[in-house]
Target: Tryptophan--tRNA ligase
Amino acid sequence: MYNSGFVPIIISDGLVNQESINMTKKRVLTGVTTTGIPHLGNYVGAIRPAIAASHAPDTESFLFLADYHGIIKCHDPEMIHESTQAVAATWLACGLDPEKTTFYRQSDIPEIMELNWILTCITAKGLMNRAHAYKAAVQENLDKGQEDQDHQIEMGLYSYPILMTADILMFNAQEVPVGRDQIQHVEMARDIAGRFNHRFKEVFTLPEVKIDENVELLVGLDGRKMSKSYGNTIPLWENDKKTQKSVNKIITNLKEPGEPKQPDESPLFEIYKAFATPAETAEFTQMLAEGLAWGEAKKMLAAKINAELAEPRERYSALTDNPAQIEDILQAGAQKARKQARVLLDQVRDAVGIRALK
Ligand code: ADP
Ligand code: TRP
Model:
C-alpha cells in the first residue's frame, strides 16, 4: 500500500527555531485554494503525496490554505468559510504534522499582501496579459460575441499570478509542487523574482516548478478525471456505507459474473489501483480475468478505500467537532510563518527604498 505516513497531531505551544535547524533543508511550498470540499481525486493526486513528501528528512515544507486566491473564483462567503475548515481538517486528518511543517492560512500573513503590492509595482502588464486563466476568460467573452473583451473580468483574476508569486517568494521556496495547470504561474514567479533581483538586490531565490510524474490522475465515476466541476466524485469524508453507495455508481459494462473482464472496461480498476499495492492490483486483474462480478469488485474497492481512510475519518470528525482546535493550529502556524516573512519583507522594503528616516 502507498505509505501515507499518518502521524498523530500535536499542537505546538512554542516556536521552533527554524532558521537554526533548517539551513540545509530544501524548501518546498504549495497552496490549496479554499473553494471546495476535498474528494478522493484531491487526496490521491495532491494531499497524500504532499504529506508523504513533508515527512522526508531533507525537506522543509510550507503548506497553506490559499483563501485570498479562493475569493477570486468564489464569491460565496459560506463556501469560502466552510471550505477553509474542510481543507484544513483534511490536511490534518490525513497526517500533516504541524510541528514538522509550516501550515498556515494565507490571509493570516499580512506580509504576503505587502509583498504582493511591491511585486505588482515591478511586474509588466504584458506578462499578466499572457496568463492562461486571463486569456481563457477573454476568449470566452470573444466567443460569446462580447464587444468588451474584459467584460466581467475582475482585477483579482488578472493579477492572480502576482499573488501566487508573493506566496512563493515570501518564503524563498526552492521547489513548488503543483498540477500541470499551474506551471505557467510558477514560471512567472521565477520571472518576477529575477526582475526584482536584477533591478534592486539579490533577495529572492528563483523557484522551480515540480511536476510529479508518479502522481496519479484519479478517474471519476464516469471515467473522466474526478473533479467537483464534473459532479463525478467520491467524497472523502463519508461513512463506509455511503462510500459503498458512491462506488456502486461507477460505470461498468453489462458483462455477467463469470465472464472475463479487462481492467480498462471500468474506471473502478484505476481507483482500486490507487489504494492497493502492486501485488494486490495484479491479483485484482487476475480475478477480473477469471470472471469476478462487477458487484463483488465494487465491494472490494469500497473495502480498500474504507480501510485506508478509517483512521483519518475518525480524526476528521474529531477536528470538525472542534474548529477552535483547527484555528489554534493555524494560528501557531501563522506565528511561525510570520517570523520568517517579516525578515524577508524588511529586506525587500529596504531594497526598494522604504525604510526608517535616520
Ligand atoms: P477539482 O478538479 O475537483 O476542482 P482542484 O482543481 O481544486 O480540484 O484541485 C486541487 C488539487 O487536487 C490540485 O493539486 C489538483 O491537481 C488535485 N486534483 C484534483 N482532481 C484530481 C484528480 N482527479 N486526480 C488527481 N489529482 C487531482
Ligand atoms: N493557484 C494554486 C491552485 O489553484 C493554489 C496556489 C496559490 C498555490 N498560491 C500558491 C500553489 C503558491 C503553489 C504555490 O492550485
Notes: Residues 323-352 form the longest helix (30 residues).
